[in-house]
Write a structure and sequence with these properties.
Blueprint: E1 19-27, E2 33-38, H1 40-46, H2 50-53, H3 64-80, E3 89-96, E4 102-111, E5 119-128, H4 130-144, H5 154-171, E6 175-182, H6 185-192, H7 194-211, E7 217-222, E8 225-231, H8 235-251, E9 262-268, H9 275-291, E10 297-298
Parallel strand pairs: 9-10
Antiparallel strand pairs: 1-2, 1-5, 3-4, 4-5, 6-8, 6-9, 7-8
């Protein structure tokens, strides 16, 4: 019979597991799947005693319907392949527990030893990779998120913009880009300090997120500059959206003694336009809005390539 072993560790009551292992038997005639033996980590992962698992249906994931789908997939793979050529199946599943929490389970089922005349012996190995998945998600968030405002960062927005430009080329749908800059932000930092300046940036990000459509993308571009990407939006519609945001900012309560304004540059993507080209045009449009006196929305397409000082 299968040799039992525990995950190395000082306490057997530890809820975390190493490699949970179950030896399975699959009857050739009925293709029913039953447990022949389990190790200690399998018991720790799914509960129950070894004796309770003997002859039971194995658990790959918590949900009964999802578990049956995996076992049906196993039976299908065995029917398709001659048993000795069975290469195994596996995957990573989200197992929802009764308390509503989720565990990420990595699993694999492979053949074990020679096939008997009336049954096939298999080995199921499993590992709880929840912590690994959560760490990967956290690292991805750190790599794609501006830590001060919670918006996507410049690098991630650049990736999104490239993707949306490609989609616009394929389906010939309107796509507009809005760049906004907080007016006289240096004066805010100089007068109130950088802590208040940071609070203004956070509040600005919250205003943008709270007033944009669900399909729009918003990013902190750098310093006091923000980017808004509006799919399925013409230049005229984007100007209306930008002016709406300008008015929201004008009437918002910021942690300063006076109102805060922002200037907006707006452009619509051209067919086959590169990221470099559209970024140059929206930057020039923003420059014109500032040159005209700030607190403006400028949809101009072509402007002389000079920066506002």
């Amino acid at each position: 019979m299968y040799q039992h072993y525990a995950r190395p560790g000082p306490e057997d009551s530890d809820e975390s597991t190493g490699h949970a292992v179950a030896i399975l038997t699959v009857a050739r005639d009925s293709r029913s799947v039953q447990v022949l033996d389990v190790n200690t980590d399998y018991q720790r992962l799914w509960g129950g005693t070894r004796e309770e698992w003997l002859g039971a249906t194995p658990t790959v994931v918590e949900q009964e319907a999802a578990n049956e789908q995996i076992l049906a997939r196993l039976r299908g793979a065995l029917n398709t392949n001659v048993e000795r050529n069975f290469k195994g199946i596996g995957g990573r599943e989200v197992s929802r527990q009764r308390d509503g929490s989720c565990r990420h389970i990595e699993w694999r089922i492979t053949a074990m030893g020679a096939c008997q005349h009336d049954a096939i012996t298999l080995v199921l190995t499993q590992r709880d990779v929840t912590e690994q998945v959560e760490n990967e998600a956290q690292l991805k968030q750190l790599a794609t998120t501006d830590m001060l405002t919670g918006l996507v960062n410049r690098s991630q927005f650049d990736t999104t913009l490239r993707s949306e430009l490609s989609r616009q080329d394929r389906y010939v749908r309107p796509l507009s880009l809005i760049m906004l800059d907080i007016d006289y932000f240096k004066d805010i930092n100089d007068r109130y300090g950088h802590d208040v300046g940071d609070q203004v940036l956070v509040e600005m990000a919250n205003l943008l997120k709270g007033n944009l459509r669900q399909v729009d993308y918003c990013a902190r571009w750098g310093g006091e500059e923000f980017m808004l990407l509006a799919p399925e939006t013409s230049l005229e519609q984007a100007v209306v959206l930008a002016d709406k945001m300008r008015c929201v900012i004008n009437t918002a309560n910021f942690p300063t003694s006076g109102p805060i304004t922002a200037s907006f540059g707006v452009v619509e993507a051209r067919p086959q336009e590169s990221v470099k080209s559209i970024m140059k045009r929206v930057d020039d449009a923003l420059y014109l809005a500032k040159e005209k006196g700030r607190d403006q929305v400028s949809p101009i397409e072509l402007v002389k390539s000079t920066r506002f000082a």
